Amino acid sequence: MAGMELRRAGGMSADTLFRRITGTGVLILFVVLTGLVVAFVGYSNPLWTIQSPIDFLTSSTWSTGTIDESGQIVDALYGASGALFGTVATSLIAVLFAAPIGILAAIFLVEFAPPRLAAPLTFIVELIAAIPSVVFGLWAAGDLSNRLRDTIEWWIASSFGRFLPFLSEDPESPAADSVFRAGFLLAIMILPMVVAVSREFIRSVPISLREGYIGMGATKWEVIRDVILPTARIGLIGGVLLALGRAIGETIAVTMVIGNAEGVPSSLFQPGQTVASKIASNIGEASGEIAIGAMAALGLSLFLLTTVISLVVRVLVRRFAVTGGRA
Amino acid sequence: MATEKRKTENSATGAKDELAQAAARPAAQAAQRASASESDSGRLTLDNVSARYGAFRAVKDVTLAVRPKSVTALIGPSGCGKSTLIRTINRMHETLPGATVSGSISLDGVDLYSSDVDPVRARRVVGMVFQKPNPFPTMSISENVSSGLRLTGGTSKSEIAGIVEDSLRRAALWDEVKDKLNQPGTSLSGGQQQRLCIARTIAVKPRVVLMDEPCSALDPVATLKIEELIRDLAAEYTIVIVTHNMQQASRVSDETAFFSMDDDRAGYLVETGPTAEMFTNPKQALTEGYIQGRFG
Ligand SMILES: Nc1ncnc2c1ncn2[C@@H]1O[C@H](COP(=O)(O)OP(=O)(O)O)[C@@H](O)[C@H]1O
Ligand SMILES: [Mg+2]
């Protein structure tokens, strides 16, 4: 019979099935996200009966208050500015070190390392990326933190501490823990991610562009500067922001080295806390609707921060994609 | 003058209309060619050139004299080493890991492979246009054209603007892009992108322009435009073009070099001669077979 091979097969087509499976996946994600936000807003509600979100964001006092004769909690104030400061400071310190070093390492891996060296190095990067953060935390708490204090922290404090109070440190008795050391530890932890993402984007710059510029009489360095970095720029920024997101959310390792001190520290070389480390170290004692509400508010602020970063990534990618990579 | 002499040869043998047309050029261009000084005229001499990828020899013992300020077409079956050979001329071949070149290639008497020649500088004198248009996506149209000048340095902003316009005019692109010089080069059509690549190549005033199948990614209309442009540019530059399109070779080139492959897949030069002769009356049976088959 003619046209037999053209007849539609019975049942659901593979395309339809695939669309439904993937569609279900997206739906689940959406439900999870909505559920999470709704739950956290709900948890945090009791807190707003005793204070405003402004107090939460601006005050550096974190006090569970006292119970008066009538059994009411009085004088409670949950101000998260110290933790917010710590989160922003540690993650910026992390990115400040990890971004340039990671991108340079990626350039080396793709452009300069002979294949025989690049393969094992890439493997090592992946290996470091897979180390659980608690291991980094232990390393820092055990040994690394002191080494950082005696080397890079000491160097920065003695070079800039005199004019920049936020970089000052008492050379006789440096603090046992510091925001800076937590940030530097984060830098080490996010470095593999920066390298891995940057490497992919640097590799994806077409050979035709590299050769085009070499053909114009460009040196290897000029190719990197004028063609590879600008072309891969969006991906590099995206990778750094992704790593920034990880640094912001990192909890256990930071909790182990930052000192978990209340308030905004006077110097980066003083102990402090981050939003994530504050949740981790306070959640055990939090009891009662209001204290739990304060924890939820911390969680929400963390969520908000990472959402803003994701949005920035999206806007960047879209804006650059439309203009073919031009600002 | 050698070039003048060859031109008469060409008209004498140019039996086909197409070929005769290709050979006939405006008198002004001929005059310009005649007045060019011999020392930087763009005379290329390939002597016993072999090119390898690791142990594999892709090009074997090619000896070829390329006439200055003319178009030389390299033709031959796929894989016979045309791209490899053309990439030895601007020292691009050696940028691939394991790739080596032996023999000598000289430009106006200077051995491009001698130890005191900087390959980076050699590439500014021997420009290259690639198979796939490759404007730099993060640079605007005018930045694409000025990219070579900015690499070399020493050209003022106002000079650069003049050279950008001049190069775009020569590449027959100015009228189409003059109102959008600041837009990305990648916003142009394929044919325009290729002319942009030609503009950026000639902006640094090279002596030789290499083109590796510059039209293979383009439609017929865009192809014709580029071919016209190649004819115009031959007044000032020595052009070596790889093409798999016999009609194109016959339309644009003055000389044709035919390559083939040995049993060991090493490409070699079968014969070379004025294009008109190569297409009407080749000396080698191999050439004749290839040309007839491809014209079919
Ligand atoms: N990067 C490379 N590495 C190894 N071999 C190559 C490479 N590029 C081309 N070749 C080989 O060299 C020979 C010539 O290739 P090519 O110069 O591209 O031929 P054509 O341009 O005439 O089609 C072919 O056998 C091809 O497989
Ligand atoms: Mg080729």
Describe this structure as you would to a colleague.
Chain A has 327 residues and is an all-alpha fold. Chain A has a domain at 80-282: MetI-like (MetI-like fold, Orthogonal Bundle), CATH 1.10.3720. Chain A has eleven helices and four strands; from the N terminus they run ααββββααααααααα. In chain A, the strands form two sheets. Chain A has a two-stranded antiparallel sheet. In chain A, strands 2-3 form a two-stranded antiparallel sheet. The radius of gyration of chain A is 25 Å and the shape is flat. Chain B is globular. A six-stranded mixed sheet of chain B has the order 6-7-8-3-9-10, with helices on both faces. In chain B, strands 2-1-4-5 form a four-stranded antiparallel sheet, covered by helices on one side. Chain B has one domain: Rossmann fold (3-Layer(aba) Sandwich), CATH 3.40.50.300. In chain B, α6 runs parallel beside α9. Helices cover 42% and strands 22% of the residues of chain B. Chain B has helices at 2-13, 17-23, 27-35, 82-89, 119-125, 141-152, 157-170, 174-177, 190-202, 220-233, 246-252, 275-280, 285-295; strands at residues 44-53, 56-66, 71-75, 99-107, 110-111, 126-129, 208-212, 238-242, 255-261, 267-274. The A-B interface holds A 114-115, 206, 208-209, 211-219, 222, 226-227, 230-231, 233, 323-326 and B 90, 92, 95, 97, 120-121, 123-124, 127-128, 130, 132, 134-140, 147-148, 151-152, 184, 186-187, 197, 200-201, 204. Adenosine-5'-diphosphate is lined by residues 53, 56, 58, 78-84, 96, 265 of chain B. Magnesium ion binds at residues 82-83, 242 of chain B.
